[in-house]
Amino acid sequence: MRTYSDSCGVARAMDLVGERWALLVVRELLLGPKRYADLATALPGISTNVLGARLAELGDSGVIRKRRLPPPTPVDVYELTPWGAELREVVLGLGRWGARTPIDPSRPLSPASFALSLLTNFDPASAEGVVARFAVTVGGERFVGAIADRTLSVERDHDAEVDLELGAGTGVGAGASLAPVFYLGRPVDDARREGVLTVHGRRELLPRIIGCFPLPEPVHPHADRTPDPTVGAAGAG
Fold first, then answer.
1. Tens digits of per-residue pLDDT, 92-107?
2. Which of 91, 117, 146 is the endpoint of a domain?
């Protein structure tokens, strides 16, 4: 494992999770354990060699662990250790920071990514007076969100009863079809007509639920840069 050879806590953290794809592996495990195949599917740009290396490194560092599920589904899964789970606020904080950059709806968005984006973009002030339980099934995974008292919880749950049920596609990047509805103002009826969204239950709640997730103010990296009066001066005469 490469190291920054720096005693700073940030540098030591980057020694553990700073390799490419490492934090995205952590992201995929924040809402529960996954099989190797699930991780490979959720991270379509990663090679099998790199995924294996990241899992081994994160395991050696104590961030994740491998566990075998009991019968009737005796398969190996990867999950965060209690220490690794402390990265939750780090990942969500990075998500909030990154959400201020332009969103590209053509890029894939894994089911876990979309579910975590709800936690990232939830605005307590916008949720004033909203009480709702809703489920989003995307990419074959079902996530249940609960809004009450200006707070939000999101969990992976295949059985919980909800007020409103939303469904998207089954592909790995299916979350990208929901992002424009939640974050870019795409009309729900348009998404339904095109078959990328299904809605069941108390449909009148949907506008209020979507209203709880405004994107943050976009950043303009060079907006506060003072113009250099010498730029272009050479050709002014």
1. 999 999 999 887 777 8
2. 91
